[in-house]
């Protein structure tokens, strides 16, 4: 990967490719480097630290636990709460602390992507709280947050149908590519994040910002699904490593 790459300009138009490769050295269907580690916070029931390209994400899960205030309880199932937040120092220009419209929207979409896999009927009158903190942002933070949240929920032992995995495809310079970096996201023509449950094939989230033809959309969906399958294996490996570490520590 070429660090600090910037977009070129030809006749006032942004260029995204050089010698058949993207400007960070990747192929069209290649993910950015990903690192996932489960069980990083002792005081959370489940946690995960994830790096995806330049993104650095911390996820913490608490619960199932009693709902406060109690009037929010559901008598027959648990509720899932999801809070996505970008740290003030996570972007180049300091962000104003606290929730804004974008973080509220991402929290809602991400919660909907996650809660459909949780077996909520197994623990009524409780809540599962998911906290996502973006420590460093480099495009694709909602997908990275969902991936970290899924690992943290599994680490917490939350009963689920399967892990949720998210990835984005997009369109840059007229070409459909996988996993946009910051410059591609800022200057490209479209961005399409999706979330799936690889175990069942269920799509739990799909969004698109920009414009694609139907054929481009179909190509982007196939690329995003391919990326999700690759990330799913990394999620599983992180949880297996966490389990192995716990067993070895008891010996």
TrEMBL record:
Q: Which GO terms describe its molecular function?
A: 3'-5'-RNA exonuclease activity; RNA binding
Gene3D superfamilies reported in the protein's UniProt record? GHMP Kinase, N-terminal domain
Signal peptide extent: none
InterPro entries xref list: ExoRNase_PH_dom1 (IPR001247), ExoRNase_PH_dom2 (IPR015847), ExoRNase_PH_dom2_sf (IPR036345), PNPase/RNase_PH_dom_sf (IPR027408), Ribosomal_Su5_D2-typ_SF (IPR020568), RNase_PH (IPR050080), Rrp41 (IPR011807)
Query: Its domain of life?
Result: Archaea
Q: Gene name on record?
A: rrp41
One of the Pfam families matching this protein, by short name:
RNase_PH
Q: Which GO terms describe its biological process?
A: gene expression; nuclear-transcribed mRNA catabolic process; rRNA catabolic process
A GO CC term assigned to this protein in UniProt:
cytoplasmic exosome (RNase complex)
**Presence of keyword Transit peptide:** no
Task: Report the residue ranges that make up the Exoribonuclease phosphorolytic domain in this protein.
Answer: 30-159, 163-227
Q: What is its EC number?
A: 3.1.13.-
Subunit: Component of the archaeal exosome complex. Forms a hexameric ring-like arrangement composed of 3 Rrp41-Rrp42 heterodimers. The hexameric ring associates with a trimer of Rrp4 and/or Csl4 subunits.
* Entry keywords, A to Z: Cytoplasm, Exonuclease, Exosome, Hydrolase, Nuclease
Indicate where this protein resides in the cell. Answer: Cytoplasm
What is the organism of origin for this protein? Candidatus Syntropharchaeum butanivorans
List the protein's name: Exosome complex component Rrp41
Q: Which family does it belong to?
A: Belongs to the RNase PH family. Rrp41 subfamily.
Q: What is its main location?
A: cytoplasm
- What is this protein's function? Catalytic component of the exosome, which is a complex involved in RNA degradation. Has 3'->5' exoribonuclease activity. Can also synthesize heteropolymeric RNA-tails. Catalytic component of the exosome, which is a complex involved in RNA degradation. Has 3'->5' exoribonuclease activity. Can also synthesize heteromeric RNA-tails.
């Amino acid at each position: 990967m070429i660090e600090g790459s910037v977009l070129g300009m030809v006749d006032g138009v942004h260029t995204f490719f050089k010698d058949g490769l993207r400007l960070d050295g990747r192929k069209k269907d290649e993910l950015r480097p990903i690192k996932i580690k489960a069980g990083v916070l002792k005081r959370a029931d489940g946690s995960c630290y994830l790096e995806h390209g330049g993104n650095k994400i911390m996820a913490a899960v608490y619960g199932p636990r009693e709902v406060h205030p109690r009037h929010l309880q559901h008598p027959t199932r648990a509720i899932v709460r999801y809070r996505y937040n970008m740290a003030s120092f996570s972007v180049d220009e300091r962000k104003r602390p606290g929730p804004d419209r974008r973080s509220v929207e991402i929290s809602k979409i991400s919660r909907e992507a996650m809660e459909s896999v949780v077996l909520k009927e197994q623990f009524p009158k409780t809540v599962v709280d998911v906290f996502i903190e973006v420590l460093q942002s480099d495009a694709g933070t909602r997908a990275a947050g969902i991936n970290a949240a899924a690992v943290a929920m599994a680490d917490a032992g939350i009963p689920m149908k399967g892990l949720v995995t998210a990835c984005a495809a997009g369109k840059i310079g007229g070409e459909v590519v996988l996993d946009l970096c910051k410059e591609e996201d800022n200057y490209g023509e479209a961005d399409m994040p999706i979330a799936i449950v690889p175990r069942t094939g269920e799509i739990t989230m799909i969004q698109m910002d920009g414009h694609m033809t139907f054929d481009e959309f179909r190509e982007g969906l196939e690329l995003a699904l391919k990326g999700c399958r690759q990330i799913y294996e990394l999620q599983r490996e992180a949880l297996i490593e966490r389990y192995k570490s716990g067993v070895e520590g008891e010996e």
